[in-house]
């Protein structure tokens, strides 16, 4: 019973963060399963199996709050299923720990990029309005989904960090729809990974039952709260915290896979945490100031002097004529 309660709380906390920021469920839950004595393959099996239920609840919740783009889910999730199935089958038979240091380093770099881009407002401004979003091509999303699914199955987490970071870096989709679409497509990835693990490790399912049940129950409870939260949070601030979280979590994995002194990692994590709070606050102030300026600027018709009622008809006619000419040029 104690183990069940512990993993229920872990599942709740991990899903609350994952559903809000698009990552951390797999990494958090896998770490706890490893600490509980599971092997790497058992931990990844348990986490992916639990995520079949939690990601279904999360995807439905994000859909309800308008955070999901169906086309992105299909283009990302279907290739992700292939990568996850292959990765699960592979992990059931061999170890892929040798690749962990390289992947961890890449994710730390990507996390820093997101943290600085959103926190300092660097690079091309991200899309913040759903109506201004542009579709990613299947040629772009398919490799990301395939590799993300493989990483999720073999590394006990990684789908969110890789896919969320890549889509946010591209800047075509609002942060909340990136997170919602990634969370929804993760259901397909977890389902495929679980099927792959069942083929290779079905006889060990009973041993992981309590961990799976705890993670599943906690995640399902937290999913609606996380989806509501991400639909309310400032998009630029959200991107800043995604970057900070990515760096903090992967610094922890560095200490585990690269034998770096734990004290050094802890100090770095604290520094990154403080930096994230500072940049997140700065991003919030910057976006709030921009919004206030936009609201304070009067419309062009009101700001321009000399527009008396007697001349409105002439101006209106001229405006309509110019609009018709603009339309003609657009369609030409």
Description:
By secondary structure, this protein is mainly α. Residues about 300-330 have low confidence and may be disordered. The protein starts with a helix and ends with a helix. Helices cover about 80% and strands about 0% of the residues. The longest helix is centred in the C-terminal third of the chain and has 35 residues, at about 260-295. The radius of gyration is 23 Å and the shape is globular. The chain has helices spanning about 1-20, 25-35, 40-65, 70-90, 100-120, 140-155, 160-170, 175-200, 210-230, 235-255, 260-295, 300-305, 310-330.
Task: Give a quick summary of the entry.
The chain has helices at 2-21, 25-35, 40-64, 70-91, 100-120, 138-155, 159-170, 175-201, 209-230, 235-257, 262-296, 300-303, 309-331.
Largest sheet: none
**Beta strands, count:** 0
What Rg is obtained from the alpha carbons, in whole angstroms?
Answer: 23 Å
Name the beta content range.
under 5%
- Unreliable stretches (pLDDT < 50, length at least 5) are 301-332
Outline type: globular
N-to-C terminal Cα separation, in Å? 71 Å
The class by helix and strand makeup works out as mainly alpha
Helix segment tally: 13
Order of helices and strands: HHHHHHHHHHHHH
Please bin the fraction of helical residues. Answer: over 70%
Give the overall average pLDDT: 76
């Amino acid at each position: 019973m104690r183990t069940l309660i512990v993993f229920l709380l872990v599942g709740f906390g991990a899903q609350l963060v994952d559903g809000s920021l698009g990552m951390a469920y797999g990494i958090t839950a896998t770490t706890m399963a490893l600490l509980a004595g599971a092997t790497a393959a058992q931990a990844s099996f348990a986490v992916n199996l639990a995520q079949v239920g939690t990601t279904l609840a999360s995807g439905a919740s994000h859909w309800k709050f308008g955070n999901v783009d169906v086309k992105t889910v299909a283009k990302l999730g279907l290739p992700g299923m292939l990568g996850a199935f292959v990765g699960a089958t592979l992990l059931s038979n061999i170890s892929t720990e040798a690749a962990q240091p390289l992947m961890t380093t890449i994710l730390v770099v990507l996390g820093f990029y997101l943290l600085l881009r959103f926190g300092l407002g660097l690079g091309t401004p991200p899309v913040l309005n759903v109506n201004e979003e542009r579709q990613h091509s299947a040629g772009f999303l398919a490799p990301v989904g395939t590799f993300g699914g493989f990483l999720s199955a073999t590394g006990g987490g990684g789908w969110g960090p890789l896919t969320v970071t890549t889509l946010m870096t591209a800047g075509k989709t609002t942060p909340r729809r990136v997170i919602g679409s990634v969370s929804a497509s993760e259901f397909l990835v977890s389902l495929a990974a679980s099927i792959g693990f069942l083929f290779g490790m079905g006889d060990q399912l009973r041993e992981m039952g309590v961990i799976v049940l705890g993670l599943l129950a906690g995640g399902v409870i937290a999913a609606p709260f996380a989806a509501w939260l991400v639909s309310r949070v400032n998009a630029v601030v959200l991107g800043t915290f995604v970057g900070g979280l990515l760096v903090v979590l992967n610094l922890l994995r560095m200490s585990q896979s690269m034998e770096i002194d734990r004290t050094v990692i802890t100090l770095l994590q604290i520094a990154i945490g403080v930096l994230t709070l500072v940049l997140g606050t700065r991003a919030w102030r910057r976006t709030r100031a921009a919004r206030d300026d936009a609201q304070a600027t009067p419309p062009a018709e009101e700001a321009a002097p000399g527009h008396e009622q007697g001349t409105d008809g002439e101006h209106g006619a001229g405006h309509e004529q110019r609009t018709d000419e603009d339309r003609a040029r657009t369609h030409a």
